[in-house]
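Researcher: We're reviewing a set of sequences before deciding which ones to prioritize for further study. For each one, I'd like a predicted 3D structure that I can look through quickly. This is NAD-dependent protein deacetylase SRT1. If possible, include the structure in token form so it fits the rest of the review sheet.
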Amino acid sequence: MSLGYAEKLSYREDVGTVGMPEKFDSPKLLQGKIEELAVMVQKSKHLVVFTGAGISTSSGIPDFRGPKGVWTLQRAGKGVPDASLPFHRAAPTLTHMALVELERAGLLKFVISQNVDSLHLRSGFPREKLAELHGNSSKEVCPCCKTEYLRDFEIETIGLKDTPRRCTDKNCGARLKDTVLDWEDALPPEEMNSAEEQCRAADLVLCLGTSLQITPACNMPLLSIKNGGKVAIVNLQATPKDKKASLVIHGLVDKVIAGVMCILSLRIPPYIRTDFIQLLLRHTVKKKCVRWTLRVTSVHGMRAPLSFLRSIEVSFPDRSDMKPVVLMEQPFSLQRETSMTSIFSMLLTLKFSDGCGNH
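Model: Here's the predicted structure for NAD-dependent protein deacetylase SRT1, in token form for your review sheet.
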């Protein structure tokens, strides 16, 4: 969760300005600004969105610098926020899904994110149009062949360290590394270069839910202004870049984006979680028997745990002599022996937690 991520970071006394008061535009002023932003988005030829922690708070992940942010409370000696979901349990917000639709509609060309919660990728936003400047807590990368592994759990380490897993390419096999930056780590060149290139090309950079304090990332949106573009900011707190923005909106990001999408006559798609799992069935022949092994794994997670899968019931509908079994522990694996001449069907019932239902 974001709290766990904050605890993993190296200690740093100066984390910038925290706890600034939130501002809310009056309803009439807010509506006028939403209409103005909708026109700016509609007229833009190269829209880039720059996101911060504020777009994920409605999913249950606290921000860092808000009145009840992680660093704000810690500086005040008040511990950590009461409610916080682990990253893997949080669902993409209305804003995340709106960005998916804006990209599909051809209006949004690129997203630059400072977040490490993986919600942009889980929303279905295209990887090739996303720069994750500070990494992704659910992603590992092979330092040799550069293959990325998106997991369904939070990686154990941060700071570009070795993880317990290896690259699955038989010609590689190198130890994987996490992708989340610690304070002293430099921005990944590939992500930074693409982000800067997109900001230079943008005629509009829309900053959503970010205090624009962390350097060098916070200076990227201003690259568009140097080339004649504009910057618009939607945030509840004032930012150091407000004076250079063409439009500053103090309102909830979800509400602002919902209003813009309505004016543009674009529907925000619902988030539908998709879990990719892999069923492996292997058998060996021994005399007159067949010994077979069933194993259930995550396609992305390989042999790692399936975060939402709690149990698997294996039953044999047409064979009364074969007792059903419930697999409760990971890795989910079952071994059985049957006659070479016997035929049977197998029914798997996967039980998920966190409201995912049974499949």
